């Protein structure tokens, strides 16, 4: 049997009623509210509050605020008048009918809201699809216009080239006719000379030779002109990331690559202080691998020492700070874990796909340290930042929801 709540408070004006129901320390998520224009129910096991209202209210304009251990309801009246009581006095049969009628109305209201929400989502999807199709069409139309311009340009160039070829062929035909006329005149003069004087035989041979040379030259001129040649130079932009060009941020990616290259070249340790180290111990990458192995074997203090020495050699590698933060978490050095994670995030800029996983780990480690210090709001902020980078991570989703529940439970208890 539920425990009926009787220590409620209510007040009214001619146009509205305000009702305050105590929640007796229960969590907000455990409160079940059902309201219509004539019935109100607040159920939080094992407590139950029911109100069969004296007059109908406007349920569509009614509001409810749950928090700080109370539920406050604001209900506008349908008729402007002062009520004698908050609840009407009815028998059990009438109360049962009111409950059933209110439950049916509430279910219809939820169904209508669900249908309205589905229609809105469908309309949003339809609008997004139409917008995307419109953008694709505009893009295709733009490409088609460029193609048409290039086609017109190529057609004009081809027409001009054909005209030049035709003019060149006409000039060669005129030159050929002129050379043939000269050849005929030469032959006629040679024949006259042979008939008149045989002494000019040698001269005739030379004329015949020159005539044959002229003919061979004219034949060469009949050949078509050689085709025009040219070189087309094709260059491709180098792509160091696999992201599509329309989706990537080229400037940020190039800046990240430049930053990583600079970090590999930079060494800011005092060589005199580290001259006793071996050659491989002066390599930050070697020290990082050593720290990773120590961490895997459970030697967290040894891993911290390895990462710290690597940081002394090069303070611009974000993985060193992030990994040392994980070690500090294991050793319960929570403030140091927060400082190292923050330093790693400062170095993981600009945010690009290449460092997304590293940024996620750094946010999770700093958020975990905040939560262990009972700074749940700061921890939730970091987990939400990590979830924004990797929204499909189920473990992150579960941890973020757990932190929300802790915050809500803390607020409800106050």
UniProtKB/TrEMBL annotation:
Residues 167-179, 204-224 have a biased composition (Basic and acidic residues). GO terms for molecular function: nuclear estrogen receptor binding. Gene3D superfamilies: 2.60.40.790, Tetratricopeptide repeat domain. It is found in: Cell projection, Neuron projection; Dynein axonemal particle; Nucleus. Keywords: Cell projection, Cytoplasm, Neurogenesis, Nucleus, Repeat, TPR repeat. One of its GO terms (biological process) is outer dynein arm assembly. It comes from the Eukaryota. Residues 165-224 are annotated as: Disordered. TPR repeats lie at residues 360-393. GO terms for cellular component: dynein axonemal particle; extracellular region; neuron projection; nucleus. Pfam families: CS (PF04969). Signal peptide: none annotated. Residues 3-87 form the CS domain. Residues 180-191 have a biased composition (Polar residues). PANTHER family: DYNEIN ASSEMBLY FACTOR 4, AXONEMAL, DYNEIN AXONEMAL ASSEMBLY FACTOR 4. This is Dynein axonemal assembly factor 4. It comes from Gasterosteus aculeatus aculeatus (three-spined stickleback).
């Amino acid at each position: 049997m539920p425990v009926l709540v009787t220590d409620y408070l209510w007040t009214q004006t001619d146009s509205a009623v305000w009702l305050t129901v105590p929640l007796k320390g229960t969590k907000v998520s455990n409160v079940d509210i059902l309201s219509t224009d004539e019935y109100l129910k607040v159920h939080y096991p094992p407590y139950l509050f029911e109100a069969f209202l004296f007059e109908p209210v406007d349920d569509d304009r009614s509001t409810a605020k749950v928090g700080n251990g109370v539920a406050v309801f604001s209900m506008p009246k349908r008729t402007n008048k002062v009520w004698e009581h908050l609840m009407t006095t009815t028998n059990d049969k009438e109360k049962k009918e009111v409950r059933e009628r209110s439950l049916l109305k509430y279910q219809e209201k939820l169904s209508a809201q669900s249908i309205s929400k589905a229609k809105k989502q469908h309309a949003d999807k339809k609008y997004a699809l139409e917008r995307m199709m419109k953008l694709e069409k505009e893009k295709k139309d733009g490409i088609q216009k460029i193609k048409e311009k290039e086609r017109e340009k190529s057609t004009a160039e081809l027409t001009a080239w054909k005209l030049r070829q035709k003019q060149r062929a006409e000039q060669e035909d005129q030159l050929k006719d002129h050379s043939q006329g000269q050849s005929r005149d030469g032959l006629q003069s040679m024949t006259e000379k042979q008939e008149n004087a045989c002494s000019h035989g040698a001269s005739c041979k030379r004329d015949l030779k020159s005539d044959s040379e002229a003919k061979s030259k004219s034949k060469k001129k009949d050949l078509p002109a050689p085709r025009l040649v040219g070189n087309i130079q094709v260059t491709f932009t180098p792509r160091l990331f696999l992201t599509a060009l329309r989706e990537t941020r080229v400037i940020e990616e190039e800046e990240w690559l430049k930053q990583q290259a600079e970090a590999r070249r930079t060494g800011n340790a005092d060589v005199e202080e580290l001259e006793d180290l071996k050659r491989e111990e002066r390599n930050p990458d070697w020290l990082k691998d050593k720290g990773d192995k120590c961490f895997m074997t459970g030697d967290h203090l040894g891993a911290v020492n390895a990462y710290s020495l690597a940081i002394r050699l090069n303070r611009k590698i974000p993985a060193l700070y992030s990994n040392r933060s994980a070690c500090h978490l294991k050793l319960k050095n929570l403030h140091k874990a927060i400082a190292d994670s923050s330093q790693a995030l400062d170095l993981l800029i600009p945010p690009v796909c290449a460092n997304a996983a590293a940024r996620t780990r750094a946010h999770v480690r700093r958020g975990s340290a905040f939560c262990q210090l009972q700074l749940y709001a700061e921890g939730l902020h970091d987990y939400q930042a990590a979830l924004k980078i990797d929204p499909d991570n189920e473990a992150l989703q579960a941890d973020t929801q757990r932190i929300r529940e802790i915050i809500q439970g803390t607020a409800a208890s106050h």
